[in-house]
């Protein structure tokens, strides 16, 4: 018995599913988000570890100073969103490749997206509602916190 490989330029005999090709867009997202994440992560590491006092300067006051500006809030939220969606999409691909039972695959993919969505919402709320002045005590606070919170 011989098998014939179809001409790559021949039209598909099976009817193509209508609507957007989600696998193609997932593939494109992984490449674009990967490049953006490399830039965002190395920028994050540079600012946190090499500028100023290095790792010894990272404390509550450092984070409060960063989150006092919208630029760093959006930087960290963009990094959070891209990383969580990138990771969940990668896990979805692994589940689709290795889980053969249809119901188990759907349950796992739904669980992945629910977990990623929950962490995205929670992380975004933490970044944008962060209040360094909550419980502010001028007697024990550092100079940076006093500069941010003092009336």
Structure description:
The chain is an all-alpha fold and 151 residues long. It has a single domain (25-133, 144-149), classed as Fumarate reductase/succinate dehydrogenase, transmembrane subunit (3 helical TM bundles of succinate and fumarate reductases, Up-down Bundle), CATH 1.20.1300.10. 66% of the residues lie in helices and 0% in strands. It has five helices and no strands. Helix 1 packs across helix 3 (70-98). The mean pLDDT is 86.
Outline, from the CA principal axes?
elongated
Tell me the distance between the termini: 86 Å
Low-confidence stretches: none
| Gyration radius from CA atoms, angstroms | 23 Å
What structural class do helix, strand and pairing data support?
mainly alpha
Number of helices: 5
CATH topology: 3 helical TM bundles of succinate and fumarate reductases
Count structural domains: 1
Q: Helical residue percent?
A: 55-70%
What's the CATH H-level superfamily name?
Answer: Fumarate reductase/succinate dehydrogenase, transmembrane subunit
CATH class: Mainly Alpha
Subcellular location: Membrane
Keywords: Heme, Iron, Membrane, Metal-binding, Transmembrane, Transmembrane helix
Pfam families: Sdh_cyt
Main location: membrane
């Amino acid at each position: 018995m011989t098998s014939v490989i179809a001409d790559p330029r021949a039209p598909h005999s099976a009817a193509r599913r209508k609507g957007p090709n989600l696998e193609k867009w997932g593939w494109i997202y992984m490449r674009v988000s990967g490049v953006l994440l490399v830039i965002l992560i190395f920028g994050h590491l540079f600012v946190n570890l090499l500028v100023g006092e290095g790792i010894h300067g990272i404390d509550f006051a450092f984070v409060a100073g960063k989150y006092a500006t919208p630029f760093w809030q959006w930087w960290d939220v963009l990094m959070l969103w891209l990383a969580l969606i990138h990771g969940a999409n990668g896990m979805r691909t692994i589940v689709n490749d290795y889980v053969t039972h249809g119901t188990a695959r759907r349950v796992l993919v739904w669980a992945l997206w629910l977990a990623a969505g929950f962490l995205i919402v929670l992380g975004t709320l933490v970044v944008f509602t962060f209040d360094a002045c909550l419980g502010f005590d001028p007697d024990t606070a550092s100079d940076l916190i006093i500069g941010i919170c003092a009336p």
